[in-house]
Amino acid sequence: MKTLVVGTGGREHALALALSLDPAVTEVHAAPGNPGIAAVATLHDVDPMSGPAVAELAVSLGADLVVVGPEAPLVAGVADVVRERGIAVFGPSGAAAQLEGSKAFSKDVMAVAGVPTARSFTCDTEAEVEAAFDELGAPYVVKDDALAAGKGVVVTRDRDEALAHARACGRVVVEEFLDGPEVSLFAICDGTTAYALQPAQDFKRIFDGGRGPNTGGMGSYTPLTWAQPDLASVVLDQVVHPTLAEMNRRGTPFVGCLYVGLALTAAGPRVIEFNVRFGDPDIQPVLAVLDSPLGVLLAAAAGGRLADVPAPEFRGGAAVTVVLASAGYPESSSKGDVITGVEAAGETADVIHAGTAVVDGSLVTAGGRVLAVRALGADVASARAAAYAAADHISFDGLQRRTDIASEPLGVVEGASLR
Ligand code: AMP
Ligand code: GLY
User: Fold this and answer.
1) Which of residues 151, 175, 199 is at a domain's end?
2) Ligand 1 within 6 A of 258 CB?
3) 225: which residues sit within 8 A by CB, 6+ positions away?
4) How far is CA 402 from CA 186, 238, 281, 282, 296, in A?
5) If you measure from the C-alpha of residue 342 to the centroid of ligand 1, how many angstroms do you get, rounded to a whole number?
6) Cβ(41)–Cβ(61) under 8 Å?
7) pLDDT digits (tens, 9 = 90+) for 7-18
8) What span, in angstroms and rounded, lies between the C-alpha atoms of 284 and 342?
9) Which residues contact 53 (CB under 8 A, 6 or more apart)?
């Protein structure tokens, strides 16, 4: 099977690496990829946002499966263009990607499908926002309706701050505050059937203890030893299958990864958000412990025949990913700082590239999140120790990393809370 991964980040590196380990996969290509992905795939300098360019590349390669990684090309309909050329794609249509592209759309689907989530109001005017605040009370949760690369959400007790965010956004979703640890659950969907991957936890804030602004994710781990053992099947029943049924009813079946961001509240799991692709870095440790061939699984989903392949299996043990970010992140990022120690780190861990470039023969920073170091262990504590020991080899000017990824008490630090 010839595969093409679309995107440039850590998620795409982790996917390309896992595909390269699947015996059924004969070739891995990436458009455009990054210097880390170059070690496991052939890179093609193609714009991931251009459906025709990606489709042309897929046709010329004779690709059997295209995996579109990030949300922006999915919302832009890149998967549709590739599918029209008769090539199987893992990733939703532009219409189905509205589950991530519009918070109001996803809340509407959840309401109709009876999915447990925060009560919410979609607001177009300041008066509507004020009324929603009055109804729901503090803490206030205000979400930009549109894609905002993780920066569209403000959670605060300060009503003026909440109102100012709403004013800056235009259309917003105001919702009830959900209290409880956050979990990432990835469902592989073929339009009607779904398999859940092992749940993971993502550390979203920039600083230790879950303080500071939200980021794209500073680290992650699996398994969640503290979560209810039937969490994945509960979420398939209560969230994923009703959502797939509603998307079918609307004539826009969902094929790809439905990423369910959950808060485990006292009343049970509640959906914080849907994304229409794998989360990064949350998916990285999950792929490290996946025992089933990834290419076979994604191709079956893309072909609408997921029920024909076995449910994914996971080896015992744990995996931990620690993100290394550049100076200024998440407000800004720095470019061109020389990175050292990647080879030494790679002897005991996977070094996953997110924002790197090769300039004059040197590996340099080229983004906010630069690298992720991923290690396995018999349990979370030993995987964590291995990830940090490997990460200690790597340096560049301004390097930022959290020191408490996957540390005790698990599940408590990263709650949906006010910081
Ligand atoms: P989102 O982009 O919807 O995932 O929101 C970003 C972050 O804001 C989440 O990871 C949560 O930490 C927080 N958040 C979003 N919605 C809520 C909510 N209803 N209650 C509490 N925290 C929330
Ligand atoms: N790690 C969160 C995300 O990918 O959106």
Assistant:
1) 175
2) no
3) 380, 410
4) 24, 34, 14, 15, 35
5) 33
6) no
7) 999 999 999 999
8) 18
9) 31, 46, 47
Q: Which residues of 110-131 are buried (b: 16+ CB within 10 A; e: fewer)?
A: beebebbbbebbbbeeeebbee
What does the alpha-carbon distance between residue 18 and residue 209 come to, in Å, rounded to a whole number? Answer: 31
Indicate the pTM of the whole model. Answer: 0.95
Q: Which residue puts its alpha carbon closest to atom 2 of ligand 2?
A: 279
* pLDDT per position as a tens digit, 171-205: 899 999 999 999 999 999 999 999 999 999 999 99
Q: For tokens 């009876």, what's the residue?
A: 114
Structure tokens that stand for 315 in this block? 């080896």
User: Same domain for 154 and 232?
Assistant: no
User: Does the pLDDT value for residue 303 go beyond 90?
Assistant: yes
Are 169 and 210 in the same domain?
Answer: no
Same domain for 183 and 293 = yes
| Total number of residues shown for the chain | 419
Domain carrying residue 75: 2-90
Query: Do 255 and 356 share a domain, yes or no?
Result: no
For ligand 2, say whether the CB of 279 is within 6 Å of any of its atoms: yes
- Tokens standing for residue 1: 């099977």
113, part of any domain = no
- Total domains in the chain come to 4
Residues 66, 36 within the same domain: yes
Ligand 1 center to residue 153 CA distance, Å?
Answer: 7
Task: Establish whether residue 71 lines the binding site of ligand 2, counting it when its CB lies within 6 angstroms of any ligand atom.
Answer: no
Question: For the domain that residue 338 is a member of, what is the CATH number?
Answer: 3.90.600.10
